[in-house]
Write a sequence for this structure.
């Protein structure tokens, strides 16, 4: 009883609640949109961001519990810090001050203090650089690009395979959205229709070339699909083919990789070298590595874990854990 008595503390329950609420809100994509809105308004200037965050949290805490306000902004603050290279501690302390019911005059004074003198009074401890992400290791740390497929586009009515995004434009199609339906890692038979929103992973130059050739309309910061894919539930990871796995000498096409796994392969690395083009017809061998984009929901529902780049399924397709674990190591 003494070993778990500490969990009866209100403080412990409150902290656990903030973490659970923050993770849940992150999975909805709200924090991604919130962080994007703040950065769009305040830019990357530290003083403006501190002022904007503090005032926004203060307004929220006036109409809701402080814990709820903190939970809503906790993940957003981490995302803002990562995107702007501002130490998270510089943003956390003013936010904690803002949710304290100290009265409007003191609140204004506090916001002004942190905004004007924050660089001198906030902790100057440099945050340790995290280890390289999967995206950085493999040189695929691109921002997700999205576009709407208009009726006039030459892609309308074609299947994914006929469109040949990878071969023609060196772009990986991550997902398709039509109204409220989102298909992650669409199969080669997926039909492209006008009004769909498409999400790609690739360089800006290749995406611009694709836009010019197809007449698709970029959605930029207005994209609901980008908000979903940028949330913490999605990310990049590695799969390594196990020795004596049943998929050895089979191709991704024969396995039905997207249909069974609901994940999008990006890079294939083997003894023969690295391939980023269409490697769907390349037989797999023990030790081969596949870098892919996946969904957290997929992994958690099948009991697997992996190394993500940060980030992530709305598709219900999946692979049984038994066959998945017998075929791959996850890194």
């Amino acid at each position: 009883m003494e070993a778990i008595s500490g969990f009866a503390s209100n403080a412990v329950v409150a902290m656990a609640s903030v973490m659970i609420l923050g993770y849940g809100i992150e999975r909805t994509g709200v924090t991604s949109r919130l962080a994007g809105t703040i950065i769009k308004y305040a830019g990357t200037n530290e003083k403006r961001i501190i002022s904007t965050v503090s005032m926004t949290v203060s307004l929220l805490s006036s109409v809701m519990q402080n814990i709820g306000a903190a939970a809503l902004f906790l993940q957003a603050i981490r995302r803002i810090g990562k995107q702007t290279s501002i130490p998270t501690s510089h943003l956390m302390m003013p936010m904690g001050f803002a949710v304290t019911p100290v009265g409007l005059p003191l609140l204004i004074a506090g916001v002004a203090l942190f905004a004007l003198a924050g660089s001198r009074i906030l902790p100057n401890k440099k945050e340790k650089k995290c280890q390289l992400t999967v995206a950085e290791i493999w040189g695929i740390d691109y921002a997700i690009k999205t576009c709407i497929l208009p009726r006039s586009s030459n892609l309308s009515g074609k299947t994914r395979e006929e469109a040949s995004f990878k071969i023609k434009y060196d772009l990986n199609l991550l997902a398709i959205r039509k109204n409220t339906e989102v298909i992650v890692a669409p199969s080669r038979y997926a039909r492209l229709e006008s009004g769909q929103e498409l999400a790609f992973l690739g360089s800006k130059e290749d995406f611009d070339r694709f836009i010019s050739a197809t007449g698709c309309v970029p959605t930029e910061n207005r994209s609901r699909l980008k908000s979903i894919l940028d949330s913490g539930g999605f990310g990049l990871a590695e799969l390594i083919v196990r020795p004596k796995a049943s998929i050895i000498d089979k191709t991704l096409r024969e396995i039905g990789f997207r249909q069974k796994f609901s994940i999008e392969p990006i890079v294939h690395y083997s003894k023969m070298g690295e391939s980023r083009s269409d490697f769907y017809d390349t037989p797999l061998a023990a030790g081969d590595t596949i870098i892919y984009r996946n969904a957290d929901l997929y992994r958690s529902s099948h009991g697997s874990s992996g190394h993500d780049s940060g980030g992530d399924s709305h598709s219900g397709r999946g692979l049984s854990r038994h066959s998945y674990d017998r075929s791959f190591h996850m890194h």
